[in-house]
Write a structure and sequence with these properties.
heterodimer, A: Cytochrome Bc1 Complex, Chain D, domain 2, 2 domains, two-stranded antiparallel sheet, elongated, B: mainly alpha, two-stranded antiparallel ribbon, globular
Chain lengths: ~180, ~725
């Protein structure tokens, strides 16, 4: 502020006067900083080494891929064990009530989605098939993929519960769809 | 630097003086309108805030669902409250700065009543779902034309005063008003260009990313030339008037004026960072936003330093309190804005409540407080008791208003900052297994609800202060006289050409030249960004599998627009892992070439919808639109029962396709001829599909919902067709 000259100009607009103080130095520096920033920034991203959005994305995906823990796929035997695990079935029932019942009804009788209590399956009736359908979904039929919302463990839980429904009697069963599956 | 007209008028002999009266009656009208629309606009905002805290506040009334109410709120506050404040403030100040009466009393009246009618028209049409959906430019074309006409009348009335002025040189406040009038006219006309298909429906001449670029060039500069430069004009008049101190630096005025109006126009693309907008335009947006800090702060320091030697007045004078706080908020917002324009910050802040915090710091702090300060100063002068000095009814009450308003802004901005950062982080958070922690959208909502309540409390405090002001101003005006103020000044000597002096000082005496330079300064930025993006084809790489919408999907899209879905849902997936994981492949420019208007959105109150097509079955959408909480537990979305009752109107479908033919969309003449039949056939297919699943479901083939479902199921799917065929 010390540079203020407080030299008053002969301007008078409806009683408003004006000083002609010099521009504060820090303000002038800020002004030039902006201009230099702009001159450097645009060429850096458009012609220079600055990463384009698609390049940033590729790098981010590669880093995520590298950091991903090794997937421990459950073997067929593990799945058979999991399928009979009462603790898993109980946890799966809870998830089913929250997320699946909207289309398959709480008792599995089916509404928008197919009946899960009969022996007929559109995309295969083994434990592994059920896990796959829940994980990847069947978008063209309206079954969404749950892998972003449920962990692999949670999907196994729900699958175990779904398998446990076979043979139960729902209130309003939907007509059977798909192929008969008689395995475990 | 000398001028022969600078001597105080009293010193001149009576012989050279002309006597004239200022038109204060029209200023009073605009003042009343400012206060009236301020109350309406802010109450609409409070209701919208409550709707986000609980969906019950939508009342299942179509006219006030959030998607229709938000544009009512934003338009009422920007164009009705702030707009009328600009007209009141600029008309009062300019008459006195130029020592002349308003150019035409008739034009003034047309200006006033025309503007108020447009506001009423806006409120009614938005409530009815008649909207273009471009933010802060939602008016359909007949009202757009009306705005242009009234704005030109404002321009004639304003620039006419330059012709009849008795003051040779134009003061800095006038420069800002001039730039505002020119720039707003330019922005409004270009962004509103559209082909009408009926009185209430039109399609913009730009599509997809180009439409987005034009819209945000407009949107950003509506902030610049409607909310900022006119208010700098007001600041330069009312602040030194109230402080009774000279302006800090004339030099600073010149430099920050020209740099501000030139640079502002380039910064629009910062609203579209990481979108499908060409990256050269994005880079310009960021660069010019950083350049904008100093010119903006030039205005702030010129305002604040004008108070040197008068800081003690701040303790007692509510007018100065409001103004100083306003200028400070201006400084904060114009620093925060450029920071949010940096890619790294923007990747977190965009689509979140952080943006909401940012704009409300500006709107409540800068625009609101400066308007309140101006009103507390103006009203006692416009409604004056004979023979008495201007006096406010209660200074104490005005001071209380100030503190209440300040606390209200604090609640508002802090809660929305917290909400914005919290949701931005939640959207991006992955667990150790590489899955999104908040994979279900509604999982993020419980964190936000308390903040929404705090925000609503802040808004309520602010509005309480507003009501205190209304009472105070009514009491001040009651029983006062309302005569036009009479003034005397010598006529401007016919063309005494000034040859000597600083070049800018000479320019200030030549309004025509000043206007031309201003027009050039504001036109360059937009032209340099928009024209290449329209002309250079590589800016929007075409995708062969992207096809125009079917007639039913197009109708569904228009329902999506009418309901204001874009207010809560974006259609622009950014190239981030957190977004492609949640929504699917990131959005490409070529996917939007048939989108008129574009629907990128600017805020995610709900999830992005660009790849929602095929994600859920039709039945899911049916249930979700009827009762969002039946499919999405904890959702804040309003229910849309009327879409299941209202008839689907296909009378314009063929005309709409014909309009798209004008835009070179590949519809054949047969497509146009059979538009309605094709739409009916697709509607029947969807309705029958639903009934095949649940026989008890009503037939929706003639209802609006069927079109909306068709549109939603199409969204973002064309690009998958390409992948599918490539795999085969």
């Amino acid at each position: 502020m010390s540079r203020d000259t407080n030299e008053i100009l002969d301007h008078d607009y409806d009683g408003i006067r004006e000083y002609d103080n010099p521009l504060p130095r820090w303000w002038v520096a800020l002004f030039w900083f902006g201009i230099v920033f702009g001159i450097v920034y645009v060429p850096y991203y458009i012609f220079g080494p600055g990463p384009l959005a698609a390049e940033e994305y590729a790098a981010e995906m590669a880093a995520a891929e590298a950091a991903m823990p090794e997937k421990k796929e459950l073997s067929a035997d593990d799945l058979l064990v999991a399928q009979k695990d009462p603790a898993r079935i109980a946890r799966g029932k809870e998830t089913f009530g929250k997320l699946c019942a909207a289309c398959h009804v709480a008792d599995g009788g089916g509404l928008v989605g197919p009946n899960l209590t009969d022996e007929f399956w559109i995309h295969g009736g083994s434990m592994a098939d059920v896990v796959k359908v829940i994980t990847e979904g069947v978008p063209e039929k309206g079954m969404i993929s749950w892998k972003t919302q449920l962990s692999p463990e949670e999907i196994v839980d729900v699958s175990a519960y779904v398998k446990s429904l076979v043979g139960t009697t729902p209130a309003n069963p939907k007509a059977p769809q798909g192929e008969k599956y008689t395995g475990t | 630097m000398t001028s022969d007209l600078e001597t105080p008028t009293e010193a001149l002999s009576d012989a050279g003086l002309e006597t004239f009266a200022y038109d204060d009656a029209i200023v009073r009208k605009f003042v009343v309108a400012t206060v009236f629309w301020g109350v309406i606009g802010m109450l609409a905002g409070l209701l919208a805030a409550l709707q986000l805290a609980s969906h019950h506040f939508n009342l299942e009334l179509p006219y006030i669902t959030f998607g229709r109410l938000r544009p009512i709120h934003t338009n009422a506050v920007i164009f009705a409250f702030v707009g009328n404040a600009i007209f009141a403030g600029s008309y009062y100040a300019t008459q006195r700065l130029l020592k002349t009466r308003l150019f035409s009393d008739t034009l003034s009246k047309i200006h006033f009543w025309g503007w108020q009618l447009i506001i009423v028209g806006a409120a009614v049409t938005f409530a009815l779902g008649i909207t273009v959906s471009k933010e802060y430019a939602e008016l359909e074309w007949p009202l757009d034309v009306a705005v242009a006409v009234i704005w030109i009348i404002y321009a004639i009335n304003f620039f006419g005063m330059l012709k009849t002025r008795r003051e040779k040189h134009l003061y800095v406040a006038i420069w800002f008003f001039m730039a505002s009038i020119i720039a707003v006219a330019l922005l409004h006309v270009v962004n509103s260009l559209a082909v009408p298909v009926s009185l209430f429906k039109s399609y913009p001449i730009f599509a997809g990313v180009q439409d987005a670029l034009v819209q945000w060039w407009y949107g950003h500069n509506a902030v610049a030339f409607f909310l900022t430069t006119p208010f700098l004009g007001l600041m330069y008049y009312y602040l030194p008037k109230a402080a009774e101190r000279p302006v800090y630096s004339y030099r600073l005025s010149i430099i920050h004026f020209w740099s501000l109006i030139f640079i502002y126009m380039w910064a629009g693309p910062h609203h579209l960072l990481y979108t499908a907008l060409p990256e050269w335009a994005q880079a310009l947006g960021t660069a010019f936003s950083i350049m904008l800090i100093a010119p903006s702060w030039g205005g702030m320091i010129n305002g604040l330093l004008t108070l040197r030697g008068a800081w003690d007045k701040l303790r007692t004078d509510p007018v100065l309190k409001f103004m100083v706080a306003a200028v400070t908020f201006y400084g904060l917002s114009t620093f925060e804005g450029p920071m949010m324009s940096l890619k790294s910050v923007n990747s977190l802040s965009h689509y979140t409540n952080w943006t909401v915090a940012h704009v409300h710091g500006g709107a409540l702090g800068w625009n609101g407080f400066l308007t309140f300060g101006m009103l507390y100063w103006l009203v006692p002068r416009l409604w004056r008791r004979k023979g008495k000095a201007p006096e406010l009814f209660s200074v104490k009450l005005a001071n209380a208003h100030f503190w209440l308003g300040l606390v209200g802004i604090g609640f508002y901005v802090l809660s929305m900052w917290a909400a914005g950062i919290a949701e931005g982080l939640m959207w991006k958070e992955f667990d150790a297994d590489g899955r999104l922690v908040y994979g279900t959208w509604s999982d993020t909502l419980p964190t936000l609800f308390p903040m929404y309540i705090i925000r609503a409390v802040g808004g309520a405090l602010y509005i309480t202060g507003l009501f205190m002001m209304v009472y105070n101003l009514i009491k001040t005006a009651k029983g006062a006289d309302t005569e036009d103020q009479v003034a005397q000044a010598p006529a401007l000597k016919a063309e005494v050409t000034e040859e000597k002096g600083h070049w800018h000082r000479l320019l200030e005496g030549r309004p025509v030249r000043f206007t031309i330079y201003t027009t050039i300064a504001v036109a360059i930025g937009g032209a340099m960004e928009i024209i290449p993006s329209l002309l250079i084809e590589s800016n929007v790489p075409t995708i062969a599998s992207v096809k125009p919408y079917t007639p039913l999907e197009l109708e569904g899209r228009d329902i999506y627009i009418a309901e204001g879905c874009y207010n809560c849902h974006s259609q622009m997936i950014r190239p981030f892992r957190a977004e492609t994981e949640r929504y699917g492949e990131y959005s490409k420019a070529g996917e939007f070439i048939y989108d008129r208007p574009f629907q990128f959105g600017s805020r995610r109150i709900g999830p992005d919808l660009h790849r929602v097509g095929g994600k859920y079955p039709d039945m899911w959408h049916y249930n979700h639109m009827l009762d969002p909480r039946s499919t999405s537990e904890g959702s804040v979305m309003p229910a849309y029962p009327w879409l299941f009752e209202d008839e689907l109107d296909l009378s314009l479908t063929a005309t709409k396709l014909r309009a798209f033919q004008i835009f070179n969309a590949p519809y054949s003449d047969d497509d146009v001829k059979n538009a309605e039949a094709n739409a009916r056939a697709q509607a029947a297919q969807i309705a029958e599909g639903l009934q095949a699943q649940v026989a008890t479901l009503p037939d929706i083939r003639d209802k609006q919902i069927v079109a909306l479902i068709a549109y939603l199921q199409r969204l973002g799917t064309d690009i998958k067709q390409a992948e599918g065929s490539a795999a085969r």
